[in-house]
UniProtKB/TrEMBL annotation:
<keyword id="KW-0540">Nuclease</keyword>
<feature type="domain" description="Exonuclease VII large subunit C-terminal">
    <location>
        <begin position="146"/>
        <end position="364"/>
    </location>
</feature>
<dbReference type="Pfam" id="PF02601">
    <property type="entry name" value="Exonuc_VII_L"/>
</dbReference>
<comment type="similarity">
    <text>Belongs to the XseA family.</text>
</comment>
<comment type="function">
    <text>Bidirectionally degrades single-stranded DNA into large acid-insoluble oligonucleotides, which are then degraded further into small acid-soluble oligonucleotides.</text>
</comment>
<feature type="domain" description="OB-fold nucleic acid binding">
    <location>
        <begin position="31"/>
        <end position="122"/>
    </location>
</feature>
<feature type="region of interest" description="Disordered">
    <location>
        <begin position="1"/>
        <end position="30"/>
    </location>
</feature>
<keyword id="KW-0378">Hydrolase</keyword>
<protein>
    <recommendedName>
        <fullName>Exodeoxyribonuclease 7 large subunit</fullName>
        <ecNumber>3.1.11.6</ecNumber>
    </recommendedName>
</protein>
<comment type="subunit">
    <text>Heterooligomer composed of large and small subunits.</text>
</comment>
<dbReference type="InterPro" id="IPR003753">
    <property type="entry name" value="Exonuc_VII_L"/>
</dbReference>
<dbReference type="InterPro" id="IPR020579">
    <property type="entry name" value="Exonuc_VII_lsu_C"/>
</dbReference>
<dbReference type="GO" id="GO:0008855">
    <property type="term" value="F:exodeoxyribonuclease VII activity"/>
</dbReference>
<dbReference type="Pfam" id="PF13742">
    <property type="entry name" value="tRNA_anti_2"/>
</dbReference>
<dbReference type="InterPro" id="IPR025824">
    <property type="entry name" value="OB-fold_nuc-bd_dom"/>
</dbReference>
<keyword id="KW-0269">Exonuclease</keyword>
<keyword id="KW-0963">Cytoplasm</keyword>
Length: 435
């Protein structure tokens, strides 16, 4: 490296800013700014390196991340930062405890003398292929409709018994039970303990789910775990487990990890709770809230009933105050005269019609009497007819010795014809009277 020195004045020490750090001594010291600039220039010549470690600190500040990365096999660590512009290109689920590899570039702040690293890429160790397969499976299940909100079952308002699948003596189990009992003291559980990470996680969880789903007393099932890095949560993205949850007839609540943890179980479950505590709060109603709600409903019901009864009493009093209800006989009195007039008119009408019909009947009776054969017989005429009933209209029809029946006004009698009389063949006139 070429070093340029300021012109030296005899008898005077050169300025500190002009002295290169490697040329400094007790008589000609260099400045702190020149030292920091030299170090910064040296550090900037370094390239980016990939390092492996465990995240021990992860703090978000205004979109930027400041953290520390610890060596997994030695007592060593570095500070790093992630600018907001590059944070979006990194996994969203990075958290303290994750085992990662990071591409970092050293940086030295000449103003403060602080040394740090800037990370431009971070990946989970060993998770690349698994996460890629997981995303492909997620897309396939979404196409099949397993994540469709329309197929998700509603949770019961107050479950008779809660099925709980979790690790034995785990904090998740304690959180679910404690918070559920605080909200509803008489809540009951049926618990199945399983391995919540590793190869045994998925098959044991599927078996526990099948047992609780077949139990008629279990109304809802909670699968709970206290969070973890994506590697430890892989069992809850197992395809057999996800399909078993989708096929279950009992509503299933997923309570795996925290907000940043997102296994496939969260997508297919009927309800996704952010934490085991959240699962207990969303499955069991709060008895205090329900009592308050019942009290409010009772108060509203009492108020409504009081208002209704008061209104009806006022309406009744208003009706009773009307004249027609104070003296109901006045209504009858007013109508009585009208009824009398109507009945009189009806009576007169009937009498007139009856008289007219009686006169008509008499006229018809007289006409009928005038046309009746009985009237003719009453005037002294008779009807003669042969034995077969034939009326004798011609004297020659009854020769001598013919039996004849004669009908008069009052009865009939038999006779024997002696034959026609002389001069009897001419018909009698209408004015002829019988002898």
């Amino acid at each position: 490296m070429t070093t340029f020195h300021a012109a030296e004045v005899p008898g005077e020490a050169p300025p500190a800013d002009s002295v290169h750090p490697r040329d400094s001594n007790v008589d000609t010291p260099t400045s702190i700014a020149r030292l920091n600039d030299t170090i910064r220039g040296f550090v900037q010549n370094w390239g980016s390196v990939w390092v492996e470690g465990e995240i021990t600190s992860w703090n978000n500040r205004g979109g930027h991340v400041f953290g520390r990365l610890k060596d997994v096999s030695a007592d060593a660590s570095i500070a790093f930062r992630v600018w907001s512009s590059t944070r979006q290109r990194m996994p969203a689920d990075l958290a303290v405890g994750d085992h990662i590899v990071a591409c970092v570039k050293p940086d030295y702040f000449s103003k403060t003398g602080d040394f740090s690293f800037t990370a431009s890429a971070i990946r989970h160790v060993g998770l690349g292929d698994q996460l890629e397969r997981l995303e492909r499976l997620r897309a396939q299940l979404r196409r099949e409709g397993l994540f469709d909100p329309a197929r998700k079952k509603r949770l019961p308002f107050l479950p008779h018994r809660i099925g709980l699948i979790t690790g034995e003596n785990s904090d998740a189990e304690k959180d679910v039970r404690r918070n559920a009992e605080l909200r509803w003291p008489h809540v009951r559980f049926r618990t199945r303990h399983v391995t919540v990470q590793g190869e045994r996680c998925a098959p044991e969880t599927v078996a526990a789910l099948a047992a609780l789903d077949a139990d008629p007393e279990v109304d809802v099932i909670i699968i709970a775990r206290g969070g973890g890095d994506p590697q430890t949560l892989m069992g809850f993205s197992d395809e057999k487990l996800v399909r078993a949850v989708a096929a279950a007839s009992t509503p299933v609540v997923s309570a795996i990890g925290h907000e940043n943890d997102h296994p496939l179980l969260d997508d297919v479950a009927d309800l996704r709770a952010s934490t085991p505590t959240d699962a207990a709060k969303r499955v069991v109603p709060d008895v205090a809230e329900q009592r308050a709600a019942i009290g409010q409903l009772r108060s509203r019901l009492t108020t409504r009933l009081t208002q209704r009864v008061t209104h009806d009493i006022a309406q009744l009093e208003q009706l009773r105050s009307r004249p027609v209800l104070r003296t109901p006989e006045s209504l009858l009195t007013a109508r009585a005269h009208e009824v009398y007039l109507l009945s009189s008119r009806g009576r007169d009408h009937v009498d007139r019609r009856l008289a007219a019909q009686q006169q008509r009947t008499a006229e018809l009776r007289a006409a009928l009497r005038a046309l009746s054969p009985a009237s003719t017989l009453a005037r002294g005429y008779a009807i003669a007819h042969l034995a077969d009933g034939t009326i004798i209209r011609d004297a020659t029809a009854a020769p001598d010795g013919t039996p004849v029946t004669v009908t008069v006004e009052s009865g009939r009698f038999a006779a024997i014809s002696e034959g026609p009389l002389e001069g009897s063949t001419s018909p009698a006139g209408p004015a002829d009277e019988p002898n």
